[in-house]
User: Fold these one by one.
Assistant:
Number 1:
Amino acid sequence: MVVASIDIQDGKVVQLRQGQELVLERDDPEALAREFDRYGEIALIDLDAAMGKGDNRPLLKKLLPLGDCRVGGGIRTVDQAKELVSLGAKKIIVGSVAFRISERKGAGKEGGEFGVNHQFLEQLAKKIGPEKIIVAVDARNGEIVVDGWKTPTGLPLVETAQAVQAYAGELLYTCVEREGTMTGIDLEAVRALKQAVRCEVTVAGGVQSLEEITALSRLGCDVQLGMALYTGKVGLADAFVASLAWDKGELLPVIAQAPDGQVLMLGYADREAVAESFKRNKLCFHSRSRNTLWMKGETSGNTLDLIRMRADCDRDAILATVAPVGPTCHRGSWSCFGDQRYTWELLQSIVEERLRNPRPGSYTASLDDELVRDKVREEAEEVCTAQSHEEIVWEVADLLYFTTVLMSRAGVSVAEVLRELERRHKK
């Protein structure tokens, strides 16, 4: 997997060489997050919080719903981590706090006694689960460094990584002396770390080529891209292709699913097909019968518009989320596995279509803001007075329909409501 990094400072996206020298600055974090989500997870790093100069929490709240985000920078308490998870963070990155046992009096946050902070990590793992924890093992010349890479700890990389893996599903290894320099990775250091731990490892710092991404993938490591991505040295589409396990075969299975998760079809893709999918924004395959590139719907018009791709845990299968244009199956059905399942998302899509293109006599189109709110109040009362099982089903269906019309008129999506319910569940 390739992880694109969005480092935030003063509300802007920045890239710093060695964590200090400003190399570039952009002011389009939301557009970047939407684009990066097509290729993999996004690392949101709050540099201001990491440096104790404030935080960018309002911006993070806007970015979190836009992709699968891992969040780091200045997370020093369990409550901070839990709040970010409740807001939609898929994983939490902790660094300095994982290695500081006590602070030296009068030294501020820098200095103190260093070691594995078992108490904090254990509490964090209990609160949000180890699968959501990434421990940043930032190292300079094999020694863990903290406080924005300014403070050496005396802790050896490999032994310390082995000690913290019990609390984390993943380690983020940054080779500090190469970070931001695009001088290449220290592949032997990565190999030694990966062989020493059982958990997943993501590598950052110095990555400059597709060949390095392939080499890291073959070691079983993911890659976090920053400087190489923003300077155009490496493109995300090419990086995604390079990270896949092509050594297992020239064709990899691709599962196409609708945005609501329903499976549409299974096909196979080679390197060219994956690259063309990103280029055309339409899902492409390799036709095994004709031994050639094939874009789904190129003759019928029933295309699969690409939203995002994800590799599985072994990097030898791809899950493509797509928006189907017309039926997917050559037999004319919505999916190669049967008819479309009726979902809340489907209900909203029908409602929105009738609001956009009202037909004569359409009841949905006739529901203005005042009328639909009156109907929601009326149906809520009828749900409360319903007695039998059948009555409750009937009245809840009415309430859900009118609520969906109200939501659609207000520009509120089903996905937003479900995210809010998920946030409450994780709170």
Number 2:
Amino acid sequence: MRLSDCHNIDDFRKLAKSRLPFPVFDYIDGAADDELTKARNTRSYDGVDLVPDVLAGVADIDTSCTILGRKSALPLMLSPTAVQRAFHWQGETAVAKAAEKFGLWFGISSLATRSIEDIAAMTSGPKLFQLYVHKDTGLNTNMIERCQASGFDALALTVDTIVSGKRERCLRSGFTTPPRFTPASILSYATRPQWTLDYLFREKFSLPNLDTHVSEGSSKAVSIAEYFNTMLDTSMDWDTAAAIRQQWGGTFVLKGVMSAGDARRAVEIGADAIMISNHGGRQLDGSRAPYDQLPEIVDAVGGEIEIICDGGIRRGTHALKAMCSGATAASGGRLYLYALAAAGQDGVERALAILKDEIERGMRLMGVTQVDQLTNDRIRQRTLL
């Protein structure tokens, strides 16, 4: 299978699986426990039908919108994801450049494999930093100040990783950051020579936003679960969030909000946006899908705060359904991670071009010429028997 054979996000997934050692692929693809919530995140979009208008004169359409104060060419964001250098040697560099080319927001994680400063220097596009609150308060302050100095447009505080979800695929494979070769996985690494050679002989894997304070994850291999369970601050609460918002002073997002009550609290502390997210199904298995929870949260705080529906996006029509249901934008991680793993920047650009084409085609077929015409009267709940 070649990159030119990829015509949807699932095709990129198949190509990534063929090119990655299985511990690395399973880290991207896997989720918590029985992975019910991960599957639900995408399946939830099947429960809503689009209602198109015809004869609407759709020769000229405008897919752009404003997200977090900056213009986006599509109602779509690239969610922050960790350790991208493990998936392809270009890592976050590829995603940053592709996002800028397509005029989209993208985010980097605290556990990014490119530094805050490097990302800021390579793109003028809108960029978000995802903050994990560590027990080391000096590290938290260091990352915030570096983002301020580098001109990041928004800070997203991740609120759903007080402890790690039980990611059983990673437990079986022994995946760590940095990746390490184990007796159980050595054959898989050996039969993926391009990935293995890139990993061994290109620039060394590191987590440059953390390694000023901690060795775990950069020079000391740990599992993501071990990192979360030992390094992150389990005492984080609403006072913590409010204090970080004050310390940051700029556009502030809470990532991982899933209840209407928490959405209301986000408004009360002055957050600019929430990302309705269950961390790609990687934390609390059995939780609702963001899209299923979207109407309830829109009813509670719609018009008071921006609402980004994060997770499960595999099609342009999924983003359109999220907009019709009241979201400011849709976002996702795997939608570009599979493509990154499959073919680096070329893969990400092809994936974004496909999603852009699907959004444009979907709007035309719906009789929509502007994003603000994606309203609730254009969808219907499907009756499930």
Number 3:
Amino acid sequence: MGRPSSNRGRVLKVTLVQIRVFVEVVERAGFAKAADALGMSQPSVSHAVASLEKAVGRPLFVRQPAVAPTPLGRKLLPHARSVLASFHSFSASALDPASPSGDVRLAVTLTARTGMIPSLLPVWEKAAPHVKVHVLEADEDEMVPWLEEGAIDAAILIDPSEIPPGGIVVARDAFAAVLRKDHPLAAEPSISVTELLDDPVIVSASSCRPRVMEICTSAVPAFRPVQQVRDLSTLLRMVAGHVGVSVVPTLARSMLGDELVMVPLHPVSRRTLVLTGPSTRPWLPAVTALRDAIALQPLSF
């Protein structure tokens, strides 16, 4: 028989303040910055971390050469965020569920931030004036884990395999060609993918890449991009600089410079953008208010 665990029956006594301080020190990468963000003194932050480390029995941070979580700290971080998010939901629901207020951390992709959020913020401000939306830019594959661990309160997902419970479609867009205005095809009402691929094509190395590659290889199986660029602004500057053409979501239209034009592609390849909260805990009332404000008017781009 194995030796009984010495931790069996042990109750870990920690406080919400300790957990909040722990998360803030990780996210700010330092005790002084965490103290400023929390409105606490640095000695108070250090004491909270030391007390938490004593409770768990092992260090949660290395202090030199820079403050960073230990392997145990990294392991506990998602759980700590989830605890804080659940308490935030509890508090918000208990205070005044009929009149939601407070902060909502909303994760979106770059194209959604630039092309859609400016249209949504006025709608939300009118419908939920006491809710403040903090927009965080994220890659598509980061959003669901962030939601479930409590790092964010809501997200706008792109083409989820299924709409999560409570989620709604907030917008639809499509992929389009980006060309210089002096390109021979720039004045066409639409162009085929095959026509576009007569030019060198620059592909985004972000989360859009699989869809763009699928669009291109469906027309030309041997397609290879001339460049792959992570930053969308850099990609657009390269198109403007005669390096090639590109395929991007129509939500990126607002990012085009004076030298560029966006032309619809055929066949059409569309995207669906879905606003959702976490699936493993109740939503903040403020997130529900944001959803309800736009439930009847999904946008198209």
Number 4:
Amino acid sequence: MSTEAVDDLTRDAFLGGRLHLFQPRNGYRAGVDPVVLAASVNASPGQAVLDLGCGAGAAALCLAARVQGLDLWGLELQPLYADLARRNGMENGVSFNVVQADLNVLPEPVRSARYHHVIANPPYYRPGAHSVAQDPGRGVALSESETPLGDWLAVAARRLAPKGYLHMIQRMDRLPDMLAGCVGRLGSVEVLPLSGRTGRAPGIAILRARKDGRAPFRLHAPVLMHEGMRHDRDADSYSPAIAAVLREGQALAWPTD
């Protein structure tokens, strides 16, 4: 991320104004995905949560806005985004312990800690698979760079406490990589696809897996992000479930049947 991007920040409202985040105007900017990821996490007050690759803190702080009293940690490779995450925690009155470090070179106290939940919104694209803006921070955020997706899953599994949960959001075409990364590490795997509209193939999926879990694999029906077959009016068309997540900070319920 360039110095100019850091100096030129916006202050953006999330969760219907319940949360405000400073973000670079021209660098990587959090959208809907980290908000939906946070809504999918079944955390309880007092539990420890680690956000791998936390960026400016969108997912972790959205979760903290819904669940009070978390022991909240973030790990971020890029120093300037780590600084923004700390600033955003203070801005929103949330105790957010952000560590600037490489995923595969974890410092103390993260290396020796165990967490009830690990959440992750890893880069979506393999190196060379997608053209990104020239801003280097955006490029690192969107592309795998030096850290394969399997490493994210391996690190998450090691950091989880027994029976702890991983929640990860990724492109649907990376689902085979996510499932492969769970083998021998995590069980009770569930996948919740997110589809833009009725009749469209899901483009994004949330994976939930549990340390020491033994339940069979479950692939749930897609959650619809928008109502209708197409966008045909000058307004957003979020489905009721997604609107409640984005505007009210509500949880995104996992199917139980």
